[in-house]
Design a protein that fits this description.
This is Dihydroxyacetone kinase phosphoprotein-dependent L subunit. Keywords: ATP-binding, Kinase, Nucleotide-binding, Transferase. One of its GO terms (biological process) is glycerol catabolic process. GO terms for molecular function: ATP binding; glycerone kinase activity. This protein is an all-alpha fold. The protein has one domain: Serine Threonine Protein Phosphatase 5, Tetratricopeptide repeat (Alpha Horseshoe). Helix 9 packs antiparallel against helix 10.
Length: 277
């Protein structure tokens, strides 16, 4: 294991820090250890640090619950989201080129492909929360920009909300969804009205929870969530951007919906269609 610290990547003079983990083999380690005099990789003396690797503790015995391999409903929803984001890559890229840096479609498609490839690795998870934690780890690893960490945190918060109960009912999923959105808002600092994906997520989470609390069926509640997300996304076209990449283009974003919010509409609708079939 190696550890480096320094300014290896910078974007648009933004403040903040980044932590990157990379899975390597001996060949790649030797390349990383090689001395370098480039400005972006100032490893003048080669290896900076070597850290002992500790094996992860074994899973606790006696775990119970349906694995992802047997939970056809959860797996169907995950697969639907992945297929949706892959198909939407061109339109999301086009939308993001108008108001951002143009990489949203590519980033979300990369995450979708990674989840598809690693879906079987989540198959032994014995609770829905464990599946969400697995997907979160995948997105943290492969999705760059702002979307990856935000979605990863949303999934982690949702997983934490599901853990006490196992997440067996629609209401528990709605509670977890709300917790995930709140976690994303805490991390990113965005609130409804800032012209971000929160403008779709927050109304959708509230609509899902409220509909189920009023006795609506799961299908009807999901449809209410999708409609709320669509409405929230439509409103972003008239909002002055205060957060996200769109804030750099200012008034030029007016008239275009937020790409991140539009992506939320797409994957929420995909979940609704998958669960109603």
């Amino acid at each position: 294991m190696r550890a480096w610290a320094g300014t290896f990547l910078s974007a648009l003079e933004m403040a903040g820090v980044s932590l990157t983990l990379l899975r390597v083999d001996d060949e790649r380690l030797s390349l990383l250890d090689a001395a370098s005099h480039t400005s972006a990789w100032p490893a003048l003396s080669g290896r900076v640090a070597q850290v002992a690797v500790r094996a992860a503790p074994p899973a606790p015995p006696g775990a119970s619950g349906a694995t992802l391999a047997r939970d056809a409903t959860l797996r169907r929803a995950i697969e639907a989201v992945c297929e949706c984001l892959l198909a939407a890559e061109p339109i999301l890229t086009e939308l993001d080129q108008r108001v951002g840096d143009g990489d949203l479609g590519i980033s979300l498609a990369r995450g979708a492909r990674a989840v598809q490839l690693e879906l079987d690795s989540y198959a032994s998870a014995t609770t829905p929360s464990a599946v969400l934690r697995g997907i979160s780890a995948t997105l943290r690893r492969v999705v760059g920009g702002t979307s990856g960490p935000l979605y990863a945190v949303m999934l982690l918060r949702a997983a934490a909300a599901l853990e006490p109960s196992g997440g067996a009912t629609a209401r528990q999923w709605a509670t977890a969804f709300s917790a995930g959105v709140d976690g994303m808002m805490e991390l990113g600092g965005a609130t409804p009205g800032d012209r971000t994906m929160v403008d779709a997520l927050k109304p959708a989470a509230d609509a899902l929870y409220d509909a189920l609390a009023q006795g609506a069926s799961t299908d009807a509640a999901l449809q209410a969530a999708v409609c709320a997300a669509i409405d929230g996304t439509s409103r972003t076209a008239s909002m002055h951007p205060r957060r996200g990449r769109s804030s750099y283009v200012g008034e030029r974003a007016i008239g275009h919906v937020d790409p991140g919010a539009h992506a939320v509409v797409l994957w929420l609708a995909a979940i609704g269609e998958a669960l109603s079939g």
